[in-house]
Each structure stands twice: as C-alpha cells, then as structure tokens.
Design a protein that fits this description.
Two copies of one chain form a homodimer. By secondary structure, chain A is α/β, with parallel strands linked by helices. Chain A is built from 13 helices and 16 strands. Chain A has two domains: about 280 residues, Zn peptidases (Aminopeptidase); about 150 residues, Glucose Oxidase, domain 1. In chain A, the strands form two sheets. Chain A has an eight-stranded mixed sheet with strand order 1-10-12-11-13-16-14-15, with helices on both faces. In chain A, strands 3-2-9-5-6-7-8-4 form an eight-stranded mixed sheet. In chain A, helix 2 packs across helix 8, helix 8 crosses helix 13 and helix 10 packs across helix 13.
C-alpha cells in the first residue's frame, strides 16, 4: 500500500507536470500549424486595408470598419457578437495642406501633414521660423524670441535605443504638447519633425492636444528629410519666412462603436479574458500595422479557439476598440462599463505594436501574474519568443487597470514600426504574412495557457521544465 | 598578511569578473552606438546595389564589385587589403526566357527564370507537362510516364516550420537536382516551383547542377502563383502541352577574386579570425539581402574596430567571398590556401541569411567553443539576442572546417528572407537600415569577446552573470 502511495505520489508530482507540458506543447503546435497553414488574418487584413482603407474615428471609413468587423465575426459564428456605442471626436483633414518657403530664389514645398486635432490656418499664415530641440530651449528663448513666429521642433528620435518605442517616447512630447508649449510664448504655429528613425520624405501624423486656456495654433509634421533641409536653410537664413495653409478642423462628436465578440467560458462564463486591438487608424495609408494587424490577430485568436475546438474555461472576448488614436474613448468607455456591470476580468491582452515577428510579451500585473507567465517561457522557445518581462500593456486596455487584472502587450520586433507609423507607407503590402500570423499564434497560445492554468493555480500546477 | 590574501582572492575571484563584465558591456554599448548613430553599412549597401547592381560570378558587374570592395576597404585604411585570385564558372542568362501555354483558347505566359547553370533550349522546346511532388513520385511514374515530357516539380515549402531555412532545406532538392533526376526517366525539361513562402508572381532562381553521365535538360523556376495556375490547368487538361524557350548557356571559366582586408592582431598576428559574406549574387534584383548585407556588415565590423580603436589580439580578416551562389570557388580556394600556408584560424563568422533583425548565432564548433559563446549570452540580452545554439556556419566558411576552427553563422529573423531570395525583389529598398546595423553590431561584439577571452581561457575568465 505504501509502495503504491509512493508510486502514486511519483506520478502526481513527477510525471503529471511532464504530461501536462507535453500536452501543452502539442496544443501550441496545433495553434501554430493552423495559423501558418490555414490562417485567415492576412486576408482579413487585406480586406480591411484595401476595401475599407484608413479609418479615422468619426469618418465614413471608420463606420465601414465597424460594419466589416461585426460581419466578419458573425460569419465566424462566435457565441455573441455585438456593438458597444460610444461618442468619438471627429477631426477632418480637409483638402488644403501646404507649406512653402523660398530659398536662393527657389520655391520649396515639402510634404507635410497636419497633426490630428490641429486647428486650420484660416487662410495663408506667414511667419518666421525658429528651430528648437525641446521645451527647455523654448523657455530659454522666451516670449521675446518666439512671439509671432513658427516654432520648428526638430529633436530626432534617439537611434541608439534598441527599442524604437523608447526612442519614440523620448520625442513625442514635441508632437503631442508642442503647440500649446509654443503658444505660451506667442508662437503662431508649429512644425514638428516626424517621429521616425528613417531618413525619408514621408511625413508622419499623430495626435496632438491643446492645453486649456492657451491659444490654439496650427501644428504640422514635416518628414525627416524635410526637417533636415529646413534646418539647413535656417542656418544660412535665420530670418526665413514661410507660408502655411491648412484647412483641417474639428467637427462635433459623432456616434461610433467598439465591436465585440465572445466565446463563452465553459467553467467561468462570468470571468472575462480580453484580446484586442484598435479598429480606428490615422487618415493616411491604410492603418495596416497600426492597428489593422492587432485587429485581425485578435479576431484570429477566437477563430483559432473555435476551429481547434479549444473550449475556454473563461469567457474569451475579442474587442475591436474605436478611437485609440485621438481620444481612447473606446478603451475608456469599455472600462467604465466593466466597472458598472461589476464584470470580473482575468486578463486583457493588446496587440498594437505592428504585425512584426513576435518576440514575447510585456506584462503589467502582479508579481504572481508575471511569474506565472514567465513559467510558460519554455513552451514558447521553439517559436523564438524570449521576452517575458514586466512592461506596458496597451492604450486601449490601460483603463481596465485595477490592481487585479493582468494587462499584457504583445511585443513584436520594433525596428521597422516607425518606418510606417501614422504615415502613407502603413499599407498592407508592408506587412509580412508569416510575421502577422506568428503574432496571432503567440497570442492565442498565451491565452490558452493562462485560461488553462489561471494565475492562482498557475505557479503551482505548471512547473515547466526550463 | 593572510587577511590581505583573502581580500586579494576576493578581488580576483569575485570583483574581477564583475569589472570585466562591466567593461565588456560598456564596449558593446560603444559598438552599438557607433553603428546606430554613424554606421556606414547601409550607405555602402546602397552603393553596391545601385551603382554595381547584381553581380553573378564571371559577369562584368562581379568584377565591378571586386573593384568596389577593394577600393572601399582601402579607403577605410585597414592594415592590408588584397585580392585572392580564383577561377569561377560563367553562366549567362541570355535574352530569351519564355514559357507559353494555351488554356481555354487563352494564351498564358507566366514569368519564369532559368535556374542558374541550366542549358538553353536551342530553339522552342515543346512538350506535355507532368506534375510531381518529389523524386519518389518521379520514380513511381517511371520512364513510361516521364519520357519526352516536361517535369513540373511543385512541392511547396512547409509553412509550419518556424525557421524558413528548414522549410527551404526540405524543398531545394527539386531545384538543385531535379533536372538530372527527371532526365534519368527521359524528361526533356523541368519547371520548378519557386522556393518562397509567399504567394506572388515573382520567380526565384538559384543554383542547379547536372549529374555526370545524365543528359542535361533545361530547367526553369516558376512563381508560386504561376505554379498554382499551371497545376489547376493540368487538373482540367492533363495533356497540356507547353512551349519553352531559353537562351541561357555556360561559357568558359574566367578569373575573379576574393577581396580581403585585415587588421593585424597585436598579440597573435599569426592567428586569424575571419568575418565575411559573399560578394557575388544571382543575376536578378540587386543581391541586397543575399548577400550584399553580409558583405557590408563584414566590412563594418573592421570599420568599427578601427573607429573605436579596438586593437584585436588576433588578426581580424574580412573576406568578401566570390562565387558562393554557383560553385563556392571562393570559399574552397580560401580554405585550400589556408591549409597550404598552415595558417591558424580561431574562428570564421559568416553573415549570409539576410540583413534582418539579428536573433543570435549558430555555432559549428567544439563543445568548449559553444559553451564559451553561450557564456556571453547575458551581454547580448539588452540587444535582444537570445539564440546561441549549435548549428550551421555558412557556405563560404564551410571548407575551413577542420575540427579546430569555430564556425559561426549570424542568425537573423528568417521570416522574410525567402520573400526576396534570388528574386527581382531582393533590392536595397527591402533592407531596413537598423536591422542591418544591428547585425553588424552583434557580429562585431561577438568577435570582440572571443578575441578578448579566447576559447581556451573563455570559460574560466569570463564568468558572466546570468
């Protein structure tokens, strides 16, 4: 009897985890095989990019995207598909977008893009340009030097940072807050160097906002080559004057939607796991990497569960968030409703860093949650995922943070992201099918493992071989 | 005194490795900063791609590339720059390359590329097409079914393999040996599905060879979409006949060169560390990833050592090998000369898997060599390199293998490589500057560490914190 007990203990504590790991590695292999052989996310992305196109909140295309997303997920036959109504800001670029200057008798008209949210110029605006690197330089120059001028923010992204997101983080204040900072000292407009590490002629737009009580002045992005050229001209001719004309404007808020689908959990239907990306994009290019990729990967996760007959224990909810780019109304509204309903959320995983080769996950949660996820690392090694670190989740899922939910960001290779970010080059052709699919497979795999083991049990039950 | 000895021991065994690791991590940071801020490899690649262009062995462009490589490395002022004469095969594509067939009264003329080394058709060749997946099917069909026909090899790359090189390895026999295998059974030509995981209309060429004593028949590659279409037509019309015309031919061998540069080792000038890529490419596209990337990264390694005043202990030799694609005469000749001279080689590191985000290194060496390199892993983690495994070195450095030298391959992310491999799409625009630079930095860093610690001392001296 004692002998049997020993054998039983042996099986329980030695063999069981090995069998569990084997079972899990087979399940992951099935997920990867399905998406790499018969994946549908790349074709879904093509349709979103080519048949809907770019889709800024409040635009006709954004509404088309809602219809597309709802129809797609209904066609997949998920348990529930529904819309969540929200109000979103509406900003319209307009048809006029022109920057001109003259140097050595030649006219220059570099490509620009108004920043999202900028006011227009109301006719042609003319002024001298003054170049600065940061807000401190602005302060040092003061009203005396800035008053009546156009401020040119030209601080480049730091190329030595290995994560391009860190480089972006070190620069984006110029774009987001530059106009109000400059207007404090009497500036009449701003030109901001595009947030990219490439040297090219493609301007990158993105959100900006005005501070309460400070005059709203027009703000545009210029390409990195355009910024270089303008800076060179300013060295020769510090009194350079430019003409700027923009017809962009904000209109009244309009109705829009988060698009939601669910596979109901068979053990804990009331506990929710969210996977999502954002459906809106900027109004140039096709929003392929940002964030068509995250949208189609999230839908693919549910498709994979259904196709492979993986019945989740918790409810698996896919959310195509609206309005990440200029307001995050989708994310905020969703989190508010969750609170109102008292819904329990286990995790929320966002893909919003481009459809590139996945490298791992960043985890914004408790130590126990992080350690549980790190225990799964060995299962991902055959798929070349190695990053399982504490880090940021995502903009849309951010408002869900409550000290209990585990927020997770899919982390792809970041080197190419800002080549395309918020620019005309963010098109379907610049997404590689396999890289996109590998991201969907990694996401589905992690959700499968957390769903199976949970965070409470995860550390005890899943003692994976390192 | 005893106390002092204890303190001394403490310093020696506890602090010294920590200081060494700190020193090394600073040196790696300097290498990465230099290449990411002031790297020259991307601009060098632009010149090679745009001003030289593609450069098949024996072509005029290949000779231009030799002149370019020698001039570039002389301009960098490396200690020695010289050419190593070799004889290379010369194969010329010719101007006629045409495949035509008629289906449902419509003419089809899918894009094709003769495989490198193929004989021409000597006028229009006409024949029925028979589709097979592999050599076993060919054998089963036998002379009776194959005789007088054109064999269409249509086995796709396996998309479920995470390394696309493994998928390539599982298919490339069709291209390399297909013609002779088919000719055994009386086939008059072969059409091979392109070695890529993409569905597109771009044919990919590559080397093939004929077996002694078997009739040489023409061999072409068709794009994956072309292969799909042809296969569909064959299902409806198994008696489909096609016309094939190729004017390609082999000419007599010509003289060419490996291009070599050195920084002489200050401690062991007679012991050599090789870093290299191959200068030749196929005759379509620009040979940007294959292997312009490896060429400019290898040159950049020497530039980095010189610029950062890192005096290597062993002689650091950059080799731009000629003729990797269709003969490996450069690699073979180099290895033969090394043997003749009795030169001792510590390591040879090759970059020939594209200029994509580096993931690590594959090591073809002794257990001690592998373990030494694995000890360095912690230093590479900030740069997102995680793969330090036993594996293949490279074609050019392969002939150096002697049981003592450590052969190393730079391992970039492989997902996109076969989108461009041997195709018109392998152009400079499809290389990302940062990904290319990160590969050069990783390579320079590993060579710096091995040069400093060696393999003999490495395991003892470098006890890096995990």
């Amino acid at each position: 009897m004692k002998f049997l007990l020993i054998i039983f203990s042996f099986i329980l504590f030695q063999v069981a985890p090995v069998i569990a790991q084997l079972e899990d590695s087979i399940q992951l292999r099935c997920i990867y095989n399905e998406v790499l052989e018969r994946g549908e996310c790349y074709e879904n992305l093509r349709v979103l990019c080519k048949e809907v196109g770019n889709r800024l909140s409040g635009s006709e295309n954004a509404e088309k995207a809602v219809v597309w997303g709802e129809a797609l997920m209904k066609r997949y036959g998920f348990d529930r598909v529904y819309l969540q109504e929200i109000m979103v800001p509406k900003w319209v670029r307009g048809s006029i977008e022109k920057l001109m200057y003259k140097d050595s008798m030649k006219n220059f008209e570099p490509a620009i893009l108004a920043l999202g949210g900028s006011v227009g110029t109301n006719g042609i605006l003319q002024g001298q340009v003054i170049e600065v690197r940061n807000f401190k330089e602005l302060e040092e120059l003061g009203k005396k030097e800035i008053q009546g001028k156009i401020v040119f923010f030209n601080r480049p992204m730091n190329p030595t940072l290995i994560s391009t997101f860190h480089a972006y983080g070190g620069c984006v204040d110029q774009r987001h807050a530059g106009a109000s900072e400059a207007a404090k000292y009497g500036a009449i407009a701003t030109i901001t160097r595009s947030m990219t590490l490439r040297n090219d002629r493609i301007p990158h737009t993105g959100s900006m906002s005005y501070k309460e009580g400070i005059k709203k002045i027009p703000a545009v992005a210029i390409s990195t080559v355009g910024a270089y050229n303008l800076s060179e001209v300013l060295k020769r001719n510090p009194n350079l004057s430019i003409n700027l004309e923009l017809s962009c404007k904000s209109e009244i808020e309009v109705k829009s939607y988060n698009v939601i689908a669910e596979i109901i959990g068979k053990v804990y239907p009331e506990k929710v796991m969210v996977v999502g990306g954002h459906l809106d994009s900027w109004d140039v290019g096709e929003g392929a990497h940002d964030d068509g990729a995250g949208v189609v990967q999230s839908v693919e996760v549910l498709r994979l569960f259904k196709k492979l007959s993986i019945q989740p224990r918790h409810t698996l909810r896919c959310i195509l968030f609206m309005n990440e780019e200029n307001g995050n109304r989708g994310g905020k509204s969703y989190a508010r409703l969750v609170k109102e309903k008292g819904e329990e959320h286990i995790l929320a995983l966002e893909s919003d860093r481009g459809g590139f080769s996945p490298r791992g996950f960043s985890v914004d949660g408790t130590t126990k949650q992080l350690e549980t996820i790190q225990r799964f690392e060995a299962l991902f090694r055959p798929y070349n995922l190695h990053l399982f670190n504490k880090g940021y989740g995502g903009v849309d899922i951010g408002p869900l943070k409550d000290g209990k939910i585990c927020l997770i960001g899919l982390v792809p290779d970041s080197q190419r992201y800002f080549d395309f970010h918020h620019a005309s080059s963010d098109i379907w052709e610049n997404v590689n099918e396999r890289e996109l699919e590998l991201g969907a497979a990694a996401t589905a795999s992690l959700i499968y493992l957390i769903d199976k083991y949970g965070f409470e049990q995860g550390l005890k039950r899943a003692t994976f071989k390192k």
